[in-house]
Structures are given as C-alpha cells and as structure tokens.
Write a structure and sequence with these properties.
The complex is a heterodimer of chains A (479) and B (244).
Chain A: H1 2-8, E1 23-25, H2 32-41, H3 46-60, E2 84-86, H4 100-108, E3 122-128, E4 131-135, H5 138-143, E5 147-150, H6 151-157, H7 159-165, H8 176-184, E6 189-193, E7 202-208, E8 219-224, E9 229-237, E10 244-247, E11 250-255, E12 260-267, E13 280-291, E14 297-304, E15 309-312, E16 315-318, E17 324-333, E18 338-347, E19 353-362, E20 367-376, E21 383-393, E22 399-408, E23 413-423, H9 426-434, H10 439-455, H11 460-474
Parallel strand pairs in A: 3-7, 6-8, 7-9, 8-11, 9-12, 10-13, 11-13, 12-14, 13-15, 13-16, 14-17, 15-18, 16-18, 17-19, 18-20, 19-21, 20-22, 21-23
Antiparallel strand pairs in A: 1-2, 3-4, 5-6
Helix pairs in contact in A: 2-3, 3-8, 6-7, 10-11
Chain B: E1 2-11, E2 14-24, E3 29-33, H1 40-48, E4 54-62, E5 65-66, H2 72-78, E6 80-83, E7 90-94, H3 95-109, H4 117-131, H5 136-139, E8 141-142, H6 148-162, E9 166-170, H7 178-191, E10 197-202, E11 215-220, E12 223-228, H8 230-239
Parallel strand pairs in B: 3-10, 3-11, 6-9, 9-10
Antiparallel strand pairs in B: 1-2, 1-4, 4-5, 7-8, 11-12
Helix pairs in contact in B: 2-3, 4-6, 6-7
Classes of the chains: A alpha/beta (479), B alpha/beta (244).
Chain lengths: 479, 244
C-alpha cells in the first residue's frame, strides 16, 4: 500500500517548460553599480535610487539568517543575475502589442492576457522575469478609481503614494532578504484603492521566472484607504532548471480605518528534481500587512505547493483598535521540498482579533514546518487570538514540525491554540477502496477535507484551481 | 453466485486459509463460525482484496467474474461489500458525500450516469427511513467520533445504499449491546431478498437469533470442517469449538 501511495505522490511538474525568447540581461553579480543600473533601466526618480542604495549598503552589513528549519548550500549572491527582461516593444496600452510568444506562454499557464473569456472578472498583471508584460482591465479599474499597475509605473505616476508607503510596513532594515529585495527589486504590482471604494473585480498578479540563473525580486504594495476594500491573488510558476533560483519578494499591505484587504497566494514554483532535490526555487519572502486604521482587516490565504525551500511568514501588525488579522494556510511539501512557513500576529490596538488556521501536508521525504508568533502587547487590552495548527503526514519518511510562540503581555487577552497531527493510513485508503472508490479520489477527498477550512477562504474563481493543483501535486494519473 | 475453490491465503508469511472452499447461491445467507485465529477475518479481507492478504492459490468467482483478477475498488464496484469489524474513521470527509461518492463509483463502473446531490438525497432518505437512522448521521464525518454501535449502523447504511450482490459482515455483532444488535439485525433482514447473498462472520450464536441463516459453517484452522443448518449454531453455542 505504501508503494502505491508513493507512486501517487510523484506527479511530474507540468509548468517546467522554458520560453525561448530573446532577453536583455545584466551580467551576473551584485554591486552598487548593478543597483544603479536597475534603477536607470526603470527610469526611476532620485528618491527610489536612494532607497535602493541605502538598502544595499545596509544589506552588505547583514548576515543570512539560519534559524529556519531548512538546510541548503550557501547561496552565492554574485552568481545570480539581478535583471532579465524579455525583449519586446516598449509596453503600450493595447494587448495586441504583447509579444505573441509571451502571450502563448501565459496561455499555456492558464493565464489569458486578453480581457475576456475564462477569468472575465479578474484583472491580471503578468510579470515575466523582471518586467511586467501586460496588465489587463487597467482602464476599467481606473474608472472606478482603483489603480492597478506594475510597480515601476507607479513609481513614476504615483511617486507620492510610493514614497509614503513603500518600506513603511517592511523597512529595508527588517531582515536580510527584505534588504536585498529593497536594493534590487525589479517589478511587482501596485494597488491603490481610494477612500470608500470597493474594488469592482478580483485583482491578480502572475509571476513567471523564465531565464536560467536569474533571481526574481518583486515587490508588491497594496494600499486601501478608509472604507475601501480589495481582493488580490498572486500565482507563480518557473521552468525546471538544475540550478537553484532565488525568489526574494516583499509584499506590503496597508489598511486605513474600516478598510479590508484579502490577499491570496497560489504558489507553484518549481520544486526541484524529485529524486535528488537538485534545482528548484528558493522562496524567501517577506509579507506583512499593517492594519493602521480602526476596525480594518487584513486576511492572508496561501496555498503553498512549490519551491525547493519556502521561508515565508505573512504577518499582520494590528495597530488600529478593533482591527482584524487572519492567516489561512495550506502548505504541501513532497519529495525533497522543505517549507518553514507560518505567520506573526502582533496585537497593539485594543480589542484586536486574529485567527490562524494552518494546514501542513508532508509527503515523500519532505520537511514541513509551521512557525508562528502571537504577540499581544500591553496596550492590546481585550485582544483575542485563535490558532488552529494541523499537520498531515503521508508515507513513512516525511516530517512535520510545529513551532508556535505565544507572547502575551496583558492579562486582558484571550489566546487559544489547538494542534493536531494525522496520518493518512493504509486502512483509510482500503476503506475507500472497499466502497469502490479508487486511491486517487480517496487521497483527494481526504486532503480536501483536511484543507476545507482554508479553501473556503479563497476567492471562488480560484478555489477549484487550488483543489486541482493540490491533487495534481499528490497524484499520478494512473494509466 | 459466489464460488470459492481451494483458496490459500498468506498473511505476514504464515498460511492462514488452507484450501478453503465454499459455494454461496443467490439469496442465501451463510454464517461462518469458529474460534479465534481460525481465519474468519482473513477470509473477509482476502475476498475484498486487501493488499496485505496474499492469495497463494485458488479461485474465486463472483457472478461469473474472476474476483482475484480485480483490485479492491473494482471488486466493490462489482457488488462485493464488506462491513468492517473495525470501521475506519475518516475525519474531514462528510458522510453524505462519501456515500454519494461510493454510489457513483459503482454506477460509473456499470456505465450508468452519476447522480447529483439532489437526486441522491431521495435515495438517502428512503434508506434512512428503512433503517431508522437519524439524519444527523449524514452531516458528520465518516465514522469520526462515532460510538461503536453508530459505526456498525453506518456500515449497514452504506450497505443499504450500495445494494451489494454479496455482503460480508465481519463480526458485525462484536461490541454491540443487545439493542444495537437488534437494530442492525432488523436492517439486514429488511435488505434480504432473492438477489442478495450474505456471508455472516461471527463468534457467537446470538446474532443468529435475529438473522436466520440458511447454512452454518464451522471454520477451524483455515478451512471449513462442518456444514449444517441454523441448528448447528445452537449446538456450537452449547458445546463450543473443542470438538473440532
């Protein structure tokens, strides 16, 4: 039976193709000159260059963190290419001018860059290596007052907003990878929803790393003013290469009074060779939201299925009284993958509330770690947190860890933590089989049941996709 | 309907079933009784295709089909049902959807259209009434947090929904108090007809007070040593298995 499970859990990665497109690349390596070249390439205003240089100089003084429960050979930061751009005409308003090869690439990935059909009510920003190649529905969104554009455009068109908010949630001093990102970030999405506006459609950014040896350093900034709200989803894939690729992103979310941001991720970066663990993405990401305004809400939902190593803790800083932070996560690791992921909920305002629901699924020889911090400051009178942390083990060689930290500094708070570990047993699969239900459907059903609390938080357009992705990751189409 | 010839089954390297032979006709109810370790549960698991039970030799034909050539799910789709001695808990999977999945798996295998949740609701209601099972059963996760008696009743509900050609009840009476036993037995009786055959596996005669078998077999050391009618069970109850 365990052999059968093994066979089922070794589905090959289907987004591993490379697009053959001429690209304009920088030499490998990092220096102050490279930082200046990136900034010049993007025609950035002076303030942005200064931000980058400060970050770079600070980064030089920092050391790579080693506390995460993952192991990998030392990264040579001089062996990474920090800028790669597919050669195509200067980006213009019309979708017709996107290179057909790029369009095909995104279509193959299930992301249509035409404003119609499949995802009719979803605006997409498609980012290929270091640049955005297309952003759909921009005009329609602008009519509603919502700005959705590549960050490089926002730097030019909305410099005041960028200046005010970029680095306000994740300062470049925050950690090693955030500092690196602040120095060399190349693209990302920018969302601004003004006061009182509910964004009329789902926003989505799709990240694709294509060039071998290049890193992707994107940066996303989402601002919701008073009573505004938006739902945003990011997706990501990469080709299969034998070398590891670094993805060090920063995401910053800001909500003012009564505003809401729902941020969902479906992460499917290449996970490396199933047998040897060679290649794959190092996904070292800093994601944080700041509920500045009272009664505002930030909700993170993540479905993490890819990457060789995941190092990621989408967090909420709950400053405004009555603000709410949520974290719903499914992290699936298989083969030789390693994930160290979780969240931090920092309660500062009165009557702030947070909910953490984490589901870790470990198959193959993978290691799956939940790491969380719930911190209730002295000022956070009446704060409430509930944490549910479940692990599922598949097979004999997978590992699940849970490292929760609870730090409560006021007697007037209510904090609860529940944790379980389950194992898919051969007996369960036989029970399904005896009722006529094959192994694939059985596994899928058990896992969907396990993850139901998280899946229901996804925007409906993507819930089905996430379910399928998860089963694909675990199943082999038995021939 | 079911024909087992010279079946030899090995578990963890030891031979448990030895040249086991049994014929069950349509609409018949057979009971297999025997002491611990006689191989009764091994017979149930081997017939239903549990991968840990290695068939060394022999032949099993169900309705003209070579059962041993099929995997567990295919056997179930063909109409073989086993009520587990220890039903497995499956947290997070809703009982009603599990039942529908099983029902549809069987229909699909038979080339019939799958039923949607609305249609299935009618099928469910009818069986719930027949078995006097509370609707709240459906909303719970499969066997999760069920009492011993509830688990066995859930097995019977599944059996009723799947309407098998051959139902094997593996020690369905064990761990049941007398009231639960009666409920389960009544349900089995309600499902008996000329099409469906039953194979009851039990230690004790008491289940047979409620479900009257056509044949009783005594199983010792991996094979049937005596066959009789329902009266044989009474003799066994009185004298035990020592004489075999």
């Amino acid at each position: 039976m365990s052999q059968q499970i093994e066979a089922l859990t070794s589905q090959p990665y289907k987004y591993g193709f490379t697009t053959d497109i001429e690209s304009e690349d920088f030499q490998k390596g990092l220096s102050e000159d490279v930082v200046r070249m990136i900034s010049a390439k993007k025609n950035e205003p002076e303030f942005m260059l200064e931000f980058r240089l400060k970050a770079y100089r600070h980064w030089l003084k920092m050391t790579e963190p080693t506390w995460a429960h993952v192991s990998y050979p030392k990264i040579d930061y001089q062996a990474i290419q920090y800028y790669a751009e597919p050669k195509q005409k200067e980006k213009l308003g019309s979708m017709d001018e996107v290179d057909p090869e790029l369009k095909r690439t995104f279509e193959k990935l299930g992301i249509p860059l035409t404003e119609q059909k499949k995802l009719a009510n979803v605006a997409v920003d498609a980012i290929f290596d270091s640049v955005s190649v297309a952003t759909t529905y921009q005009k329609k969104l602008l009519e509603a007052g919502v700005v959705f554009c590549p960050l490089s455009e926002a730097v030019k068109n909305y410099p005041d907003l960028v200046k005010q908010y970029m680095g306000s949630v994740v300062p470049y001093t925050d950690n090693f990878f955030a500092a690196l990102n602040s120095a060399v970030f190349t693209e990302g999405s920018f969302v601004y929803v003004p006061k009182g506006i509910t964004c009329p459609m789902e926003l989505s950014t799709y990240f694709r790393i294509n060039t071998e040896g290049s890193g992707q350093f994107e940066r996303t900034l989402i601002i919701c003013e008073e009573q505004a709200s938006v739902s945003y989803l990011e997706g990501c894939t990469a080709p299969m290469f034998d070398t590891n690729q670094l993805h060090a992103a920063v995401v910053e979310l800001v909500t003012l009074d009564d505003a809401q941001i729902k941020y969902s991720t479906v992460q499917n970066w290449y996970a490396g060779n199933p047998e040897t663990g060679k290649g794959g993405i190092y996904n070292f990401v800093t994601k944080r939201g700041k509920c500045i305004g009272k009664n505002s809400k930030i909700s993170w939902t993540q479905i993490e299925t890819g990457s060789a190593i995941t190092w990621k803790y989408p967090s909420c800083v709950l400053i405004g009284d009555g603000s709410i932070g949520e974290f719903y996560s499914v992290a699936l690791t298989n083969h030789r993958q390693q994930a160290d992921t979780g969240t931090k909920m920092i309660h500062i305002g009165k009557n702030t509330k947070s909910t953490i629901v984490s589901k870790g699924i470990a198959a193959g020889k993978s290691v799956n770690t939940y790491r969380g911090l719930v911190q209730v400051n002295r000022s956070a009178v009446g704060a409430e947190n509930f944490t549910q942390c479940d692990s599922m083990l598949i097979g004999q060689e997978s590992v699940a860890n849970t490292f929760p930290t609870i730090d409560v500094r006021t007697p007037l708070a209510n904090v609860g933590h529940e944790a379980t570990t389950v194992k898919i047993s051969a007996d369960q699969l036989f029970y399904f089989a005896q009722r006529g239900i094959g192994m694939e459907e059985a596994l899928q059903t058990i896992i969907n049941g396990f993850c139901a609390d998280v899946f229901k938080e996804l925007p409906t357009e993507f819930a089905v996709e996430a379910t399928q992705l998860l089963s694909l990751k675990l199943e082999n189409s038995v021939g | 309907m079911l024909s087992i010839k010279n079946l030899c089954v090995r578990v963890d390297g030891s031979d448990i079933l030895k040249d086991f032979t049994l014929e069950i006709g349509s609409g018949e109810v057979h009971a297999i009784m025997g002491p611990n370790g006689a191989g009764k549960s091994t017979l149930a698991k081997a017939l239903s295709g549990h991968p840990d039970y290695e068939v060394v030799s022999g032949e099993v034909i169900l309705d003209g089909q070579d059962l041993l050539a099929l995997d567990a799910a295919e056997r179930a789709q063909l109409g073989l049902f086993m009520s587990f001695q220890y039903p497995v808990e499956i947290p997070g999977v809703n009982n009603a959807s599990f039942l529908r999945m099983a029902y549809n798996a069987k229909r699909k295998a038979a080339g019939q259209a799958e039923v949607d949740p609305m249609e299935f609701e009618f099928i469910l209601q009818e069986k719930l009434e027949l078995l006097k099972i509370d609707e709240s059963f459906l909303e719970r996760a499969v066997n999760h947090g069920f009492s011993g008696g509830e688990k066995k009743r859930n097995e019977i509900l599944q059996m009723a929904i799947l309407d098998p050609k051959l139902a094997i009840l593996d020690e369905t009476d064990s761990g049941l108090d007398i009231d639960s036993l009666r409920i389960v037995a009544e349900a089995v009786n309600a499902l008996r007809d000329v099409q469906n055959s039953f194979l009851l596996i039990t230690h004790y005669q008491r289940l047979l007070n409620y479900i009257k078998p056509d044949f009783v077999h005594v199983m010792v050391d991996g094979r049937i040593v005596q066959t009789g009618t329902a009266e044989l069970a009474l003799v066994l109850e009185e004298k035990g298995y020592d004489g075999f």
